[in-house]
Design brief:
The complex is a heterodimer of chains A (116) and B (111). In chain A, 0% of the residues lie in helices and 53% in strands. Chain A has no helices and 11 strands. Chain A has strands at 4-7, 10-13, 19-25, 32-38, 44-51, 57-58, 67-73, 76-81, 90-97, 105-107, 111-115. In chain A, the strands form 2 sheets. In chain A, strands 2, 4, 5, 6, 9, 10 and 11 form a 7-stranded mixed beta sheet that branches. A 4-stranded antiparallel beta sheet of chain A has the order 1-3-8-7, with no helix packed on it. In chain A, a hairpin with a 7-residue loop joins β9 and β10 (105-107). By secondary structure, chain B is mainly β. Chain B is built from no helices and 11 strands. In chain B, 38% of the residues are buried. Classes of the chains: A mainly beta (116), B mainly beta (111). The interface between A and B is medium-sized, with 28 and 25 residues.
Chain lengths: 116, 111
């Protein structure tokens, strides 16, 4: 089945630094990937839609200069949290559509970001 | 951000019992998906529904896409301890590729 690999699985960084999270579709091409954010015991909130070869589209309230998204190839999207602060600490998850299988979106295993 | 109403929020059930949860919205959706998420992991797709009225099963799981396209339910029959986790519905907004998630149902199974 379709596999989406997300790296790193967890990261701790200092306030003010930037962190890059990678999302790769391992056995299929994904022209569109999605980035979600999840706070403890809460649901997944869509942050942005990552489009291969073009600019990402951000959901209302999500700062595009804060959360930089690059989708440079059909198998890789990256999310960079710039100038991270403790309130950015969260679980970040990407997903990509698998045209085969059940057709739903396959999720990565998530990245737990802790900003200290 | 936008979310779907999902109920119940949490439930404790005895092993062997059937479970039912649902999602409702004021918006129309093209597709409904049901996911299960274990702690510290990404969600795993359980069932996908593509047509209004569609009823689909996956082992002990059964889900239906509501006729109005504004709701969906998931049933789990004869629950077992490994069913423990958080279940999310996700609806694809009509005219977009975006999926909006439900608020989640936390299931705990008592052996």
């Amino acid at each position: 089945g379709a596999v989406v690999s997300q790296h790193p699985s967890w990261v701790i960084c200092k306030s003010g630094t930037s962190v890059k999270i990678e999302c790769r579709s391992l056995d299929f091409q994904a022209t569109t990937m999605f980035w979600y954010r999840q706070f403890p015991k809460q649901s997944l909130m869509l942050m942005a839609t990552s489009n291969e070869g073009s600019k990402a589209t951000y959901e209302q309230g999500v700062e595009k200069d804060k959360f930089l998204i690059n989708h440079a190839s059909l198998t890789l999207s990256t999310l960079t949290v710039t100038s991270a602060h403790p309130e950015d600490s969260s679980f970040y998850i990407c997903s990509a559509r698998d045209a085969g299988g059940m057709g739903g979106y396959t999720f990565g295993s998530g990245t737990r970001l802790t900003v200290v | 951000g936008q979310q779907l109403n999902q109920s119940p929020q949490s439930m404790f059930i005895q092993e062997g019992e059937d479970v039912s949860m649902n999602c409702t919205s004021s918006s129309i959706f093209n597709t409904w998906l049901w996911y299960k998420q274990d702690p510290g992991e990404g969600p795993v797709l359980l069932i996908a529904l593509y047509k209004a009225g569609e009823l689909t099963s996956n082992g002990r799981l059964t889900a239906q896409f509501g006729i109005t396209r504004k709701d969906s339910f998931l049933n789990i029959s004869a629950s077992i301890p490994s069913d423990v986790g958080i279940y999310f519905c996700a609806g694809q907004l009509s005219g977009t590729y975006k999926y909006i998630f439900g608020t989640g149902t936390r299931l705990k199974v008592l052996a």
